[in-house]
Design a protein that fits this description.
four-stranded antiparallel sheet; Methylamine Dehydrogenase, Chain H
Length: about 140
C-alpha cells in the first residue's frame, strides 16, 4: 500500500505512507478508534498497520485468491474479509486470529459489511448474483 497521504482528523495525525502489499489493494478499513488501519489486496494478504507510526502490526494469510473487501465491527472487536476464493474470514481484532471461515457463495465474494450495531451479523455480496446474511 503506498498512499501519498492519509485522511486525517482533528483527533489523529496519521502517518503519510505505508508499504507492504505486492499486489493491488482492494479496500481499507479503520478500527473503532482509528488507531489501526487494515488493508486487503489481490496478493491474498490482510495487513494491519498502526496509524500513528505506520508500523506493520500483522500480516494475515489464509485466503487462496485475491481479497476484495474488509470491514471492522463497530465495537472494534472483529474484522471480516472476503475473497475471490468464495469465502468470508472473520478475525478477532485482539489477537488477529481467524475465528471462522464462512462459505455459501458460489462465486467471488466482492463485499462484506457488519450490520449496524452488530459484531456478529454480516451482509455479503457475490458474483453469484446473491446477497447473503451469513451467521458470523
Amino acid at each position: 500500500m503506498n498512499h501519498s497521504r492519509w485522511v486525517t482528523s482533528s483527533k489523529h495525525q496519521l502517518t503519510p505512507s505505508v508499504t507492504g502489499h505486492t499486489g493491488p489493494c482492494g479496500a481499507v478499513a479503520l478500527n473503532h478508534d482509528g488507531t489501526v488501519c487494515v488493508s486487503v489486496s489481490q496478493d491474498m494478504t490482510v495487513r494491519c498497520f498502526d496509524t500513528m507510526s505506520g508500523k506493520e502490526l500483522n500480516v494475515l494469510t489464509g485466503h487462496t485468491a485475491g481479497i476484495y473487501s474488509v470491514d471492522v465491527s463497530q465495537d472494534g472487536t472483529r474484522m471480516a474479509t472476503c475473497s475471490a476464493d468464495k469465502t468470508i474470514r472473520v478475525y478477532d481484532m485482539s489477537n488477529y486470529e481467524c475465528t471462522k471461515v464462512l462459505t455459501g457463495h458460489n462465486s467471488h465474494v466482492t463485499a462484506v459489511r457488519w450490520l449496524p450495531g452488530s459484531n456478529k451479523d454480516l451482509v455479503s455480496s457475490s458474483w453469484d448474483d446473491t446477497i447473503k446474511v451469513p451467521d458470523a
